[in-house]
Amino acid sequence: MKGCLQLKRAAMALVLLVMSCTLFVPCSAGERTVNDDFLAAGKAYEAGDWSKAIQIYEALISHAGFSASLCYNLANSYARNGQTGKAVLGYERALRLAPGDADIRHNLELLRQEKGLSQEEISLFHQAGALLGLNQWALLTAILLAALSLLQLATWRFTLSTGLSYFLTGLCLLLLGISSAGIALQYQSWQQAVIITPKVSLLISPFAGAASTGIIEEGRLIRIIKSHDDYTLIQDENGHSGWIPNPFFESIAMTMADIREGNKIF
Amino acid sequence: MERLVRRTQLIITLSQVRSVALLLTLAILGLATVSHGAPSVSASLDARRFSVDQAATLTITINDADGTIAELPRVDGLDFQQRGRSSRHQIINGSLSSSVATFFLVQALRPGTFTIPPIAVTVDGKRLLTEPISFEVTSAAAGVPSLPNPEGGAAPPSRSGAQAVGEKEQMAFLRVSPVKEESYTGEVLPIEIKAYFRRGLRATLNTQPRLNGDGFVLSESKQEPVQTEEMVDNVPYSVLTWPGTLSGIKEGSHNVSVAIEATLLLPDNRRRGAPMGDDPFFGNDLFADFFNQQRVQEKKIQIVSKEMTLQVLSLPAEGKPAGFGGAIGKFALQVKAQPTDVGPGDPITLTMTVAGAGNFDRVEAPVLSQPEGWKSYPPSAKFTPGVSLGQGSKVFDQAIIARSGDKTSIPPLAFSFFDPEAGKYQTLHSDPILLHTSKTEGSEKSENKSAGDDRSGGGQGRSDTAGIEKTMPQKSNGDQSGRPAASPLAPLHSKMGSLQQGLIPLITQTGFQMVLLALFLLLVGVILFKIRARRLAGNPVLCRQQEMVRLLELRLREIRKNQEQGSNRDFLAICRRTLQEQLGLLWQTGPAAITLADLRQRLAPDSELIILFATAESGAYVGHLLSSQEMAEYVEKLEHALRQLR
């Protein structure tokens, strides 16, 4: 009887061991592979093999997903490799994920300055909006909504001084207004795209033989207005607009499905 | 007598019939013997002197034949409009004559003396000519100015070469001022274009001002023209003013003018032509005025300014500075540098402002007068227009880096332009800007590295010297992240950070939207509950009803407890108290003061409550006790009666 019990315990332990191996071993291996690839890409970059670094970073993103550091490192590799458009795209994506990162801002400004991609002076309002990223503004909004709800519950169930109640409610509403404005401002920046091909002609109509109204430089931020077949009507920061073929630009926002279907990260 | 009168009337009637019959017979007989005269044509004008706001009727008559009028002659300043035909036949002394008249309305476009030349009419294959007709057209009678002419005024697009007349006789004219007669190629000449329209005239502009002639380019302001009022020779005009610039693009002498097209709505108070226009009823202006329908006619005109002869000179080759980029005008230069406290390899941003008046599209960034030892990067430019066209300031931002650490100042920057007033080139020099250099360990390392093998430094510093950094400004001394001093790009991040699937903002993800929605609904729900509670607190009826319910529930629990315990006295006492409390709340009186007499007085005689109250009182005062069955029935009735009380 005792032996039978021990046998059962041993079997149970074996099952648990197998299950834990099944659950944890692939993850550990996967993490190790991702970290190894990340380090390998860094080594390739430092060795001056930027094409290889780009290849590894791209593969990492398509398998593991995005992070601010991955996008940033990839953008650095593109910048070194002379691919301005994709470098700007990488920095812009990294900024969307980590808006306060000084390295990303520094490199992006440096690249723009070098390539003559000057931007319009950003208003104080927009600068304030850029203090946080869209996700941070969204989280702040959710927290404020929850705080406001709790405050209302508290004033309903418990006795709070009217002045304090009004002050806290007003404060919450003010912050909620600010965070909503922040969302609105930052949401626009997520709708932008970047020209990734040098010297793209702006066409007056969405077909190949259409007349050109000008040239848009690689690395310019654009706003997508509408699409027609393989062409998209865009407008750059200076207000110039025209049709360009779809492969000549890349949106900043992107899903994993986009990556896997399009086989294109940057 | 009466019969005599009747007979006389009958005789007269019969004689009239006979006369008519005789005449008809003669006419029929005569038709066989009528003879036509020789065909002839004539032209007449019903007025030999009229004003420009009126019209005359030209009648071309073809006698004794069928004929066709060839095309009317084109007379500059006159407009012909056909208004109809009439034909007439008559027999005089057995001779039949016929005539066909064709009517034309003649309108003059300006005052003057005109001659309608002979008009050709083809009759039976022969070409006959009318006599020429001369007439005089005077200025507008009153109120309505004359139609414009093309030289120095306005004219219909198809007309040209008319004689000039004074502006005061024009309903619209154009002036361009002031224009230098001599300018240099590329020089910007600010001008002012003014279109004058007689006050009260209704006009629509069809085009913006445009330049007639070669050798110059007209740039006009994108702003809407400014509308003012001006008096010209004591005649009020509405004036539209456009600021603009003229630039000579081709050397030589050029005749240019400025034109604009407009549509005028003119009151049609012209005299009607005789056959059609003199309708005593419908042709009456009074009739039109009665229905408030003043006739107007649209007149498309082209207003052309007086032709100007402008000379475009080439820029002198003598004294042309090396750095001259084509700027012509009058400019001033201001240069600022930031930062001035730098180490070797640190970028310095030069902010160079070129302000003044001239062709800013040709203004290029000032250049270092001594560029040796400095690396300059392409400047960015931003033009801010001034109040007037051709004026403004152009700001250039340019990064420069000292190639060596011994630079103590930024050399003067030079900007060259051609001054058209002085007729010579000028070069502006900024003052040298002193630098405060500081050599740090990091900067020395940087210098050593740049002096040696770029790729042998190892680590981040080594790679930073290759590729892009060769053309990018150098970053200053190493920072806290250990970035090398010479690194233009911040180094790679060593940690990957948290990964996320896709670059999609949180706000667009369904889960997060649900959370936000739930929080919002929670907030709305709490607010609604609070509003309801506040309304309840402010309503005495609702409060009383709530209190009645609360007290009833409380007392019913006590009653049932006593019922279960069989404590008959307490049971009845609580029942009585419950009744008093409920009725007290309902009648808003003290519960203790309510007696059976009150119930009998205020309730219906057959009210269950009276019986229940009486039973409870009898138990309390008389000692009447209830069985458990009676207690159960009592409770049931009490609860039912009290629940209905509200």
Your description of this structure?
- Chain A is an alpha+beta fold and 266 residues long.
- Chain A folds into three domains: 2-115, Serine Threonine Protein Phosphatase 5, Tetratricopeptide repeat, CATH 1.25.40.10; 124-189; 192-262, SH3 Domains (SH3 type barrels, Roll), CATH 2.30.30.
- Chain A is built from nine helices and seven strands, in the order H-H-H-H-H-H-H-H-E-E-E-E-E-E-E-H.
- Chain A has helices spanning 2-46, 50-64, 68-80, 84-97, 102-115, 124-129, 134-157, 162-190, 256-262, and strands at residues 192-195, 200-203, 212-216, 221-228, 231-236, 241-245, 249-251.
- In chain A, helix 1 (2-46) runs antiparallel to helix 2 (50-64) and helix 7 packs antiparallel against helix 8 (162-190).
- Chain B folds into four domains: 40-138, Sandwich (Immunoglobulin-like); 154-311, Immunoglobulin-like, CATH 2.60.40; 317-437, Sandwich (Immunoglobulin-like); 540-643.
- In chain B, a hairpin with a 5-residue loop joins strand 28 and strand 29.
- Chain B is flat and about 150 Å long.
- Chain B is α+β, with helices and mostly antiparallel strands.
- At the A-B interface, helix 1, helix 3, helix 4, helix 5 and helix 7 of A face helix 5 and helix 6 of B.
Characteristics:
heterodimer; A: 266 residues; alpha+beta; Serine Threonine Protein Phosphatase 5, Tetratricopeptide repeat; SH3 type barrels; two-stranded antiparallel ribbon; B: 646 residues; Immunoglobulin-like; 4 domains; seven-stranded mixed beta sheet; five-stranded antiparallel beta sheet; 11 helices; 26% helix
Helix/strand/pairing category of chain B: alpha+beta
For the record, the count of structural domains of chain B works out to 4
Indicate the CATH architecture of the largest domain in chain B: Sandwich
Radius of gyration from the alpha-carbon trace of chain B, in angstroms: 54 Å
Q: How does the overall form of chain B come out from the CA principal axes?
A: flat
CATH topology of the largest domain in chain B: Immunoglobulin-like
Q: What is the name of the CATH class of the largest domain in chain A?
A: Mainly Alpha
**Nearest-integer average pLDDT of chain A:** 82
Q: Determine the CATH topology of the largest domain in chain A.
A: Serine Threonine Protein Phosphatase 5, Tetratricopeptide repeat
Figure out the total of helices of chain B. 11
- Using a beta-carbon cutoff below 8 angstroms, give the protein chain pair with the largest interface and the number of residues from each chain: A-B, 64 and 50 residues
List low-pLDDT spans of chain A: 21-28
Order of helices and strands of chain A: HHHHHHHHEEEEEEEH
Radius of gyration of chain A: 25 Å
Please name the fourth-level CATH homologous superfamily of the largest domain in chain A: Tetratricopeptide repeat domain
Cα end-to-end separation of chain A: 66 Å
Helicity level of chain A:
55-70%
Give a short account of the largest sheet of chain A. Answer: 5 strands, antiparallel
